[in-house]
Design goal:
The chain is of the alpha+beta class. The chain folds into 2 domains: 111 residues, no CATH class; 195 residues, no CATH class. A hairpin with a 5-residue loop joins strand 2 and strand 3. Helix 6 runs parallel beside helix 9. It is flat, with a radius of gyration of 40 Å. The protein starts with a helix and ends with a helix.
Amino acid sequence: MVGNYLVPKAALEAYSLLWDIKQKKPSLDLRQGVFYNSIPGISIKVNYKTPETGLLRGIIIYDHRGNSGNKEVIVADSGRMYTILNDSYLKLELYSGYNYVEGNTSLKPTRGVFVKKRVTVKCSLPNRPFVFDLSSFGLNRTDKKWFQSNRLMRNMGQLRTDMDSVDGTIKTEFISVYSSTQSMFTYYGLKDQIVWPEEIRLHKVIRDSLAITRNVPDPAVPNAKPILPEDHEPEPKPIDRGYSPRHKQKSDSIFQAPYTESELANALSRVRTVKAQLLTSNSNISAHENDKRIFYIQWHKIMAQAIACIAMFLIGAPLGAIIKKGGLGVPVLMSILFFILFYVLSLMGEKWAKQSVLSVEMGMWLANATLFLIGFMFLRQARADARLFDSDFYSVIWDRLTRRFSKKTV
């Protein structure tokens, strides 16, 4: 229950919050002698800051809100900066400042030709305040529906639905490949025909039946009376398809004629087109199969993590009876070692399952199977009151082995 419902919900909350934190801009932090560019359209530089009074000296502001480059510059001797309206706006008060605006003007010489000349306008700014919007610095939460399709945010039922959807997409891709053989191959259908797999054929039958059910005709249409009388046309006569010896000789001469360069070029172009279409379909099918495998891995991972708790308990209970030591030294050390073993085997199994080296079932249950074998071995040794962690136990085994080999040599 915890791994199937609470863990996906917690992952959804955590990953959505992490995404919003990554997208959030850093807090307003002016450093001495460095331009600050996080305010949209504004670049500010402060030469010196007074921590006690909060006074800023040597202020240079480049205004880029007009998208005209560095043509508007504000220089001030000093100023103060503070936020207003719950930190939504930044207010900057400048003292003894000047505004420099660079622009073009047109002059008319004696010949009547207009010539553009670059000029700079200087304006005094006595104690003028500036207000900047800081809404982009706030934490805007993203709708969680954009993260719900990730496999980590899905429970077992939703993962099963996703696998069925991807499996249907794969079968539909196969249907399009098998259905396009008549357009790809000119002589398809004369003698040799490609046999459809039974699974693909049944999927096509079910899909077509659902399409027919959706497109049920209106019952009033067959009962409607025709407005115009039907024309009684004579039945068409069958065409004589018999081949005379002359036609047969002409057909044989056509097939036996040598190929021209245009025919070879046309055939080569057609082969390349068919190859490109098949390669595209193959890559699409491989991508969908990889998505299905990832969903299947996550489905098994939810169950494997729950069973791993039982495997750890099966190891810990007899291990405590075997160690026979109190405290946190040896028990904690053995717990860490077995957890590292479980973690490494889980990562290896998941990696091999994604790479199709092992099946998904074998890869995801490899760690649990190993822990269960170790747990049953410890349980058997605990019932026999074995002393696996005593030095005397291994010395006795070593003495028995040496005596046995010494008797064989004699």
